[in-house]
Amino acid sequence: MDSRHVITIEGIGTVKTPHPTQEVIAKVHGSQCGFCTPGIVMSLYALTKDKMNPTQEEVDEAFDGNLCRCTGYRPILEGAMKSASDGDHHECEVGCAPAECAEKRSTGTCTAEKGSDIEDIVKRSKVSEDSVPFPSDLLERHTARQTAVAYSFRCDRAAWYHPTTVDQLLSILDLYPDAKLVHGSTEVSIEMKFKNAVYPVLVSVADIPALKSITETDDGVHFGGSVTLTTLQHTLESLCSRREPHQTRGLAALLDNLRFFAGNQIRNVACLAGNIVTASPTSDINPVLMAMNAILRVQSSENGIRQIPVREFFLGYRRTALRSSEVILSVYVPFSCPNQYVKAYKQSKRKDDDITIVNAGLNVGLEFASGQGWVVKEASFAFGGMGPTTMRFVTKSCTFWQSIVVDLRRYSSAKLTAEACVGKTWSKEMMENAAKQLVIDLPLTLSSPGGMIQYRRVLALSLFQKFILYVSHQLAKLTPGVPSVVEREVSGIENIPRPLSHGVQEYENEKGAVVGETTTHLSALKQCTGEAVYIDDMAPLQGELFGGLVLSSQAHAEIKSVDYSAALKLDGVKAYISANDIPGWTPDEHHNRNVVGPVFRDEEIFATKKVYHVGQMIGLIVAESASLATRAAKLVRVTYEPIQPLIVSIEDAIAAKSFFEFSRTIKTGAYKTTDGPKDERVVPLSAATHTVEGVARMSAQEHFYLETNCSLAVPSKEDDEMLVYASTQNPTETQHFVAHTLGIPSNRVVCKVKRMGGGFGGKESRSVLLSLAVAIAAKKLGRPVRCMLTREEDMAMTGQRHPFRGEYKVGFTDEGKFVFMELDLYSNGGFSMDLSHSVLERALCHADNCYHFPNVKMRARICKTNIPSNTAFRGFGGPQGMMVAEQIIHHVAAYLKKPAEEIMRLNFYECDQPTHFGQPMENVYLDRLFADTLRTSDFERRKAEVAEYNARHKYRKRGIAVLPTKFGLSFTARWLNQAGALVHVYTDGSVLITHGGTEMGQGLHTKMVQIAAHTLGVPISKVHLSETSTDKVPNTSATAASVSSDMNGMAILDACTQIRERLKPYADSHPKVSWEDLVEIAYKDRVNLSANGFYKTPDLGFDWSTGTGRMYNYFTYGAAVSEVEIDTLTGDHVVRRADIVMDIGKSLNPAIDVGQIEGAFTQGMGWCTIEEPLVSPTTGFLFTRGPGAYKIPGFRDIPTDLRVRFMKGATNPRAIHSSKAVGEPPLFLGASVFFAIKHAIDAARAENCQSGYFRMDSPATAERIRNACGGPLVEIAHVPNEMGKPWAVVA
Q1: Is the pTM of this model over 0.90?
Q2: Where, in this chain's numbering, is substrate bound (predicted)?
């Protein structure tokens, strides 16, 4: 930090005086939960600081290192684009861009005329360049010194050296040859955190001018080893713009991969040499440097200066040719020659900021020979992601590959490949023969680390194919008569272009009404200025301690011993907490206080005798700091005795018959056995003239809330009281279980929730365990204890969305009308029940989606496996059930060779038709909404355009799909459908409200304030909501099932109505007094200005034993049309456009509801495209821990054109102010992207002479897309099953 000016979110503005970058994100509704907002604001601020007039493209790229799980990104991007210099700043009353303005005027939705765009609550304005001035004292020091100063210091665990010359650096390395060099610490920090690496001596190379030089010569460029990747990127861009095009082909290739290397924040501090010496087999830079024959210049005191070709630098996994004490001074990258062609490719799960699956640097030099054509003179091909090191094939003198270096083995020659190429000219036949040998030269087995073996083999061939197309296309331009790439194949050369994102929102605006207006999230500006307080932001309390978790490293084992003595020896470590520290606990106790569960008590807080999954909590180290607690926890040694079998996946459980006892069955129509007379309305099974059978398989999904689980327990000095601050959706359950575990009444425990940094269901039940652990520690030690999980800990122990498998058989008529459905549904519950039974019930009840099946026979079971307990996640089983229904729709459509939308419309529910669980359908708008969606999206015209595009392009295909949704609203457990509220009116006229719901970014508190203000007839500014607390509103239900606005809103309405009725006589007798005076008059007449509101949802009560009763209060409907484009060679995809139409009744707050729709759609899109948790089948270890391995959609994964529309004229008499729930229903619409991808794959398969229905499991990852497209390369790269057991599986 020496001489650095560190600016944080708090430093650039406050709520009272916000910086324009803060204000713009808040006003465009770009902050929901707010936990990601500081990073996003600072990325925008840094951009405007670095570039006074950034382009739209630069704005778009500024966020490639940021993630948001709530908003869907669109409002953030639109707000940030106001800072772009090349934006369209034409004169529009509300500042719309010309294209947007024209679109809205043409559709009659002009925001200037109707005020219906949520960004138009304030006039748009360009973000100013106001910034925080550089501190004068630092500026004076910098001016006086000009250069950095060398220094060093030591602490208890390490020494830090900061040299400023190469000589100083070499002298330090002479003393400490094993010292670790650090520049941006992007790799070192990972090694220290995740690999427990310890480096006693660290040496910074960030301020050595000699290592930051860039020298341009006639033949190439010398880049200093400490040149940052951002500087490298800008330099390459400059060189490519100044030099002859043929000279910079290699540099352009390096630039191509560099653009997708990590995120801006990493590239700003990571350096070139640091990336090279890590010797990562998936490095995005090393394959290009190898292919370009780059040379490293290294130096040490002992060996002096020497040069190492990059092709000879990598000796094995993470092993290089650097000798002891050597450092990389510079990297020489040669310019390319006139007839030299260089390309770089990278494929990853997510396009931006992701680790490569396979990448390549491909370089070929040719010479034209009369009578022969273009002859290969030399070639250099390097692949990353195909083994433990970057793998290179190099040839000279007409031989393609003479040697190959692969991980720890050396191959003297790739004879088969060489023999296929020797003496050949550049031709299609030669390259096809070479490709067949390439698979042999890239050996991978099913158990190879990284998995995806079939895909990686295909991908290497596909990238090679892209290179062939590129070179052939270039050669045809040079030489008349040389066969060119046909026009249909040209699209295979480059990546799919992705334009800048934009969006349109259309809805009915309640002008002048408090309820129904576009009120900004009440915490938005606080979140944008860093003033919003989350639990870990709370100032440390007196005597506060911190917890570090001891988690199981085995998936199924007996605990033989736990040795925590080494941890307790560390100074500052106070205790090791286990089940033995629970007050009054004995393992044989009838009511075991160490055993909890939201419904079924089947899970230990601290594992005592056995562990059932990797990441199960065994104990808690308590220490004086969080870092010390974490370090000490790693010293705890647990010995295990493994137990067999290890069951991980649904398929494992089915084979082993490992199920929970709970199951559900539904039978209707002809399947329902009755003793009475035959029901003449039953459609006979024989009416089906066709049947299809299939499997619908869905993966899990990580919640990835930005704020991980965090709890703080504060013990009282009297009456055994305990105060718990928790990031939880379920404060009452937290309260009850803390009381249960500590052996005290619930009235001694208070749980408070200010806000959460996201929840999505993941903090409904699983958050309780952490709260219990810190509460037990606080009770024992008599001091506050806080613990916040790391991302990796959170993902390892808290569970995910349930994976599902549906095995179906469906009968239907010639037209496609459904007659029957038989379905066996399996979910993966993990090791304990948690909420799996309720998730299963909702999945079963949504397996019809929007379609009527006259005869149904369904059976559902929960698999018991050795993974963390899966739990609630936005949709709560509904999306999984609906995915089965949509797979059926597309299966039947493919069988009958009819459009899927035709089968949908034929089978839509009609009013009064009963669902398969017996609930008559009311107020059904499906036909109208579906027709509206098709019309406003221009579906038929675009579908024809997609077909035309596909006919003209071989390697890129487009697809378009429409998808409806029907989502039932209410808790399926009847007793949970209740809510309470407490409203106080103070004598100054201010209003304080409290209710049982929690705020996690969904805008619940904002809506509740609106309802209170509307009911009392006061401005929103008069109403305040501080927090959720169990001592204000007791016995609350979890904030879940999307009904929190419905229930808590009605409870607030009830309380406010009581107060309003009490004030009515005084308002009637004093019609002209102000609200404040009215309150004072009533107070002085001794009127109670406080009220307790209550609401219970009427008419609910489904009986599973009889199949009767009302399951849901009402249904929310929606539909979406998505259009995609896929690269059939790589499996990459871009969502070109998405149109969403929702029936949400009369919106309480359109701004918030649009945000919920866009966020849910993006989350649903992630679930069925790029998000895929992977588990080791042999150890149960979750491979996809943390943002490095698990990818959620980023800023440039959203639809480039996103349109949201509220269906007009829809009402809902069964919810407050005729609104409808909106949190969960839109999520499944993201699956429209899955089926659009499937449509595009259909076109690719037709190109390869494959037709008819094909099974594709969800998610549609790049791997699944490419493999499903088929073709000759897939056949060449086929991996036989006998090659080994898979490295990873989907649970």
Answers
A1: yes
A2: 764, 842, 876, 972
